[in-house]
Amino acid sequence: MNVISITPGTDDQGRTNTLRALLAKLGATVWTSGEDDEELRFAPVDPLMRPFTSIVPLQRLTAELARLRGTDPDTLHGRVEPWLSAMTELEL
């Protein structure tokens, strides 16, 4: 499984790094995306415009990949081990 993780524009108290570590522990390949030194970069913009340059394009990519594969990205692993147990490790 591949995951594209968006680096927040502001401090998130380490939650993104915790999520990335958990995903790596589960065997996922984690790709980082953001404005700085990331694997997948997008241009720096005003914080109010950031969803349009990062989140929306990635949601559209996810939707198209799911459509092509005939899957649902929202329920793909939610109730299957080890994902079910792993999600209880996260504190949002």
Would you give an account of this structure?
The protein is of the alpha/beta class and 92 residues long. The chain is built from 3 helices and 3 strands. It has helices at residues 15-25, 50-69, 83-87; strands at residues 2-6, 29-34, 40-41. Strands 1-2-3 form a 3-stranded parallel beta sheet. The longest helix is centred in the middle third of the chain and has 20 residues, at 50-69. It is globular and about 40 Å long. The chain starts with a strand and ends in a 5-residue tail after the last helix. 2% of the residues are buried. The mean pLDDT is 85.
Average pLDDT, all residues: 85
Helical amount: 25-40%
Largest sheet: 3 strands, parallel
The span between the termini is: 22 Å
* Proportion in β-strands: 5-15%
Quick recap:
The chain has 92 residues and is of the alpha/beta class. The chain is built from three helices and three strands. The chain has helices spanning 15-25, 50-69, 83-87; strands at 2-6, 29-34, 40-41.
List the helices and strands and how they pair.
Blueprint: E1 2-6, H1 15-25, E2 29-34, E3 40-41, H2 50-69, H3 83-87
Parallel strand pairs: 1-2, 2-3
Which descriptors would you attach to this protein?
alpha/beta, globular, 92 residues, 3 helices, three-stranded parallel sheet
